[in-house]
Each structure stands twice: as C-alpha cells, then as structure tokens.
Design brief:
By secondary structure, the chain is α+β, with helices and mostly antiparallel strands. It contains 8 helices and 9 strands. The protein folds into 2 domains: about 80 residues, no CATH class; about 140 residues, D-amino Acid Aminotransferase, Chain A, domain 1 (2-Layer Sandwich), CATH 3.30.470.20. A hairpin with a 5-residue loop joins strand 1 and strand 2. Helix 4 packs antiparallel against helix 5.
C-alpha cells in the first residue's frame, strides 16, 4: 500500500479488533481494498499465517520468535512506533501442482533434481530435497520463496531472476506459471487485483522447460536414469 494514511488506518483497525477480543499474541487480521481505496474487514486468524515471511522481511521482526516469547509470559520487546516497514516483499508458494490442470497436485512423484536460487534478499522456507517423494495427502507445498527489495521494480526483478534459476525436475510445479506472472506487464506495473488471473488466461500458456537450467537439469536426470546420454552421437 503506497498510501501511508490508509495503511495507518488499517493497522489501527486491526489493533482495535485485537483489543476488543482481548487477544494478546501474534495474529493475522485480513482486509480487502477496493479500487476507491475503501478497506473491508475479512477475518482474524489467531495464528501466524503462511504469508508471515513477507512481514518479517519488510520489518526485520522475527514473528515466530516473538510469538513464542509472548506465550512464555515475556513482554513485547518493541512498541508499535518501533515497527518500520522498508521496501517490498513477494512470497511465492512453490507447489507440486499442474497449473494447466486446475492446479492438480502431483502427489506420489519423486523430485529427481532440485536446485534452488539464493543471494541477497532471497528467503526459502521448505523441506524438499533431491530424491524427495511428494506425499499424496495433505499439502502440495514444496518450498516458500520470499524475495525483498527496496523498490517494487527491484523486488520483481529479483523474483524473476530467482524463478529463472529455480530448478525442480520430476513433478510439475508452479514455477513456470509464476515466471509468466513475473514477466507480465500489468504485474510489473503493479496493476492487479483479485480478478487478475481471470483477465490474463494467457499466463497459463508456458513451456514447462522455459529456462536453460531446467533443460540441463532434465538432461542430467535422464542420463542418471539411463546410465548414458541418449542424445550423444
């Protein structure tokens, strides 16, 4: 949100809601904002949400650690005035799903190649590794990737670079779909809302092996499986 006054109003409403419920710990208050910048309350979750990494990266506050300390009866180590937001952050859920098949999970498949991106402003929260077999129950999430930058354009550039360098072979993943989003002009311009995907069906048109790293990883996996290079003369 670029409007600080609007952001302050939303945060003030969230604090009032927590006080009204006599809630004292980490929690998530969700709102929607319309095109006229009116905001609407959605819900309160009395827990840390999956998107907490975005808040942690733009504030520098370890929310999970803070939550545990509060549960132990310790006082909050900072005031609301101490919380400063710096830059932008984007989180992508790297899921073992097929976006072209209504995001059908790829449970039961094995990750034959795994190579993750890194560098300044990049955070990965996950457990997947080469040889990992995706469970057929519960969640298709492999790893959460969160990127941070001091401007929106810097953040999107970092996101695009990370997606281009992220290689997971074996199951289909949401990576190439996200890469299409990171290249989309409307997304880059920050012009998107809850109807974004409905307005951009072309985002589902992509090559599974869009980058050279993926092509090389698939070749290595095939050579490892066969025991020889089937494409060598």
């Amino acid at each position: 949100i670029g409007d600080k006054k609007l952001l302050d109003k939303i945060c003030d409403t969230a604090v009032k809601a927590a006080k009204a419920a006599n809630y004292f710990n980490a929690g998530t208050v969700e709102f929607l904002i319309d095109k006229n910048f009116n905001y609407y309350f959605m819900e309160i979750n009395t827990r840390v949400q999956v998107e907490h990494t975005v808040t942690e990266m733009i504030t520098g506050i370890d929310i999970v650690r803070t939550q545990i300390k509060l549960a132990m009866g310790k006082k909050l180590a900072f005031s609301q005035e101490d919380v400063q937001m710096r830059g932008h952050a984007i989180e992508m859920r790297i899921n073992a799903e097929d976006p072209k098949a209504d995001f059908m999970p790829e449970g039961g498949k094995t990750v034959s190649v795994y190579r993750s991106p890194g560098g300044y402003g990049v955070r990965l929260d996950g457990f997947v590794y080469q040889g990992f077999t995706i469970p057929e129950v519960y969640d298709s999430l492999l790893v959460k990737m969160t990127v941070h930058g001091f401007s929106w354009n810097e953040t999107v550039d970092r996101l695009r670079r990370c997606l281009q360098n992220f290689v997971i072979a074996g199951p289909k993943t949401t990576i190439p779909f996200y890469l299409n989003i990171a290249r989309d002009e409307d997304f880059i311009a920050g012009d998107f809302d809850t109807s974004y995907l409905d307005k951009h069906p072309e985002l589902f048109n992509y090559d599974e092996n869009d980058n050279e790293a993926s092509k090389l990883a698939n070749l290595i996996a095939e050579i490892h499986h066969r025991g020889y290079n089937p494409y060598a003369a």
